[in-house]
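Write out the 3D structure for:
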Amino acid sequence: MVLRPSFDGESSLILHGGEQRQEFSATEKFFLTYSLAEKNLWYSMPENNEEKKQKEINVTVTTVPVPKPMAVRLCSIWNRMILRTRVPVTSVNGFDGISIEFATQRGYGETWTPMQRKSPLLFVELGESLIDYCKASEEDRKAKLKKVSQKAGKLENYLDAHKP
């Protein structure tokens, strides 16, 4: 998941099984890695700022373990959403919002600041709960994981009720 706000720093969230495992089903340990740029990368480029200079941007990277059952569930949800992705009939981009990209090995999808209580917004909310999980202290992660599970359940229920 990649978040590209109009003015703030970009961020990404990656679910992975570590560097040694390419085969998802054989992976025993899973991690979430959250990266956050302190400022907007686009404005750091010389052609996009008033100073016409390359600006240095610090990026904070946080990696936390995630239980295998949750990792498997998240991958299933991510794949379900990607397989349902379609090109919109009308443009959904705007000026002051967030462009959110989602990707798996099966494909790619993008949305812009979803507002309706439909699957794109529920998907974004699930991603935001995963970011909160990454930011939480070790002792607070159990409670954050419950919120992740709740958000996952809401999206799964929506997907089950609105089959293509």
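Residues 76 and 156 are 10 Å apart (CA to CA).
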